Amino acid sequence: MDSNPLRLGAAVVFSSLLLVATASAQVDEEGKFLKQQAEALSKFAESALKAGFPGMARPVWLEVLADYDKDDALARKGLGFVRVG
Q1: Least confident of 13-17, 65-69, 70-74
Q2: Using DSSP, how many helices (H) and how many strands (E) does the chain show?
Q3: pTM: predicted TM-score of the whole model, two decimal places
């Protein structure tokens, strides 16, 4: 095993940078996924409301706001939320 402190330090720094880059990419991917799911669920809830099932639409919109996108415009509109300020 190489006991050169310079090489060891470089390896630690490189490993740390690699982990940060990987984590950053995962966060971006997760954000895109959550946004897509929020849009799909909001559209589903809107179609349920139009089909005459408001009891099905409301919990879906609440789920969108709680778990996917707290600022989803379709869900907020469907629930009757109004922005103040």
Answers
A1: 13-17
A2: 3, 0
A3: 0.65
Per the CB < 8 A criterion, the answer to whether 46 and 13 are in contact is: no
57 in Cβ contact with 78 (< 8 Å):
yes
Q: Under a CB-based contact definition with an 8 Å cutoff, are residues 78 and 66 in contact?
A: no
Confidence of residue 9 (pLDDT cuts 50, 70, 90): low
* Residue 66 backbone dihedrals phi, psi, to 5 degrees: -80, -40
**Domain ranges across the chain:** 5-79
Residues in the chain: 85
Q: How far, in Å, are 10, 14, 36 from residue 61 at the CA level?
A: 49, 44, 14
Identify which of 45, 37, 34, 30 has the alpha carbon closest to the alpha carbon of residue 75.
45
Rg (the chain; Cα; Å): 22
pLDDT in tens, 50-61: 999 999 999 999
